[in-house]
Amino acid sequence: MTRIKENIVGLDAAILMSPKIWQASGHLTAGFADELVECKKCHHRFRKDFLEKDICPDCQGPLTEPRKFNLMMKTFIGPLEGEASQAYLRAETCQGIYVNFLNVLNSSRLKIPFGIAQIGKSFRNEITPGNFIYRTREFEQMEMQWFCPPDKAAEFFAYWKEERMKWYLDLGLKKENLRFREVGQDELAHYAKAAVDIEYKFPFGWKEIEGVHNRGDWDLSNHAKHSGQDLSYFDEEKKERYFPHIIETSVGADRSFLAFLIDAYDEVKGGRTKTTESVKEEEVVLRLSGRIAPIKLAILPLLKNKPELVKKAKEVFDLLKTDFYCQYDEAGSIGRRYRRQDEVGTVFCLTVDFDSLEKDDLTLRDRDTMEQERIKIADLPSVIKKRLEK
Ligand code: GAP
């Protein structure tokens, strides 16, 4: 978002924010609440919209009438707990972007249309967290807010929807596990004029991993009204002043990571290689794209009790460690070390052997194909960079 696209800037805004912001955004006053029901027998609590029937799924007991439950997490600033010291942990990162809109506009010399993007923690007092890291009470969001002229909002909404789907596909999610879901008018969040979810086919069903929203001028006009600051924009070309409309792309980093993890996880029954020592029932390979695999390289001396191999391998590690996330590993047989790296998704293993001492080269082993080839050590930085970008 912030490096490849030239008109999107990054921001890191506050996590603790005044209640006034959340009043202006509608989170305290409008619809940022789920309907909660409680079982009259076992007292377990549920989100009403997650229940298939009107009875307790745990003990079949009767349920209370639904009541609204606000998801904002409240805290207090300073030593006194009172109305005046209340603050909220942000429930979405984008509000930090809206209240910094003028700061960014005045300091970045951007013209509309442009975007502000942010990655950071958000907090919601979810009634039913669960499904591993799918729904948690503190989670990481990656949001981008695209400010545009009102008459261009529909066009940009369509553009960003497609761009975001491409992002998942480029990073390796399987096409058959992704789909759009148009959000119906009756389900829209209080700020949205239109919305589409990007859904992934989890083992527990099709679920949202990202929302793309047309938020209209809801945010800037409300923050302007509540703060008394003029957040409108003067369009030099059109010679008119307006509240920019906002197209938002809102990703859950944890949720999308869970999707990447599930798609990449491969159990090979019977194993991929049949060496005498590693005959086993199954082998795990984490086939993450080279662009998102956390560990890019493992540097392995063939034998750990040969100081000349260890020395050479450590030189290779030093050559590469500032450009790529590398692990150095000398423990166990080479086959076992390959398996271990395959399991954590390391993209390439670089093995230093006796020929390396003579020829200044080593074996590069590809995680997915298991193919091995000799590469000159001096060529490694450029060869690896190119291959990881594929
Ligand atoms: N700013 C708009 C917004 O926050 P949202 O649909 O409420 O929209 C956006 O959330 C994304 O944040 C969701 O698609 C999801 O990936 C992630 N998200 C929301 N609540 C979450 C939770 N409790 N745990 C993990 N991720 C969550």
Largest sheet: 7 strands, mixed
The mean pLDDT is 94
Measured by DSSP, the beta-strand proportion falls in 25-35%
- Tell me the structural class: alpha+beta
Bound molecules: glycyl-adenosine-5'-phosphate
First-residue to last-residue Cα separation: 18 Å
Strand order of the largest sheet: 1-8-9-15-12-11-10
Q: What count of helical segments does DSSP give?
A: 10
- Described by the principal axes of the CA atoms, the overall outline is globular
Radius of gyration of CA atoms, rounded to a whole number: 26 Å
| Unreliable runs | none
Number of beta-strand segments: 22
Q: Classify the helix fraction into a percent range.
A: 25-40%
Task: Give a written overview of the molecule.
It contains ten helices and 22 strands. The chain is an alpha+beta fold. The strands form six sheets. A seven-stranded mixed sheet has the order 1-8-9-15-12-11-10, sandwiched between helices. A five-stranded mixed sheet has the order 19-18-20-21-22, with helices on both faces. A three-stranded antiparallel sheet has the order 2-7-6. The relative contact order is 0.09. The mean pLDDT is 94. Bound molecules: glycyl-adenosine-5'-phosphate. Glycyl-adenosine-5'-phosphate binds next to strand 9, strand 12, strand 15 and helix 6.
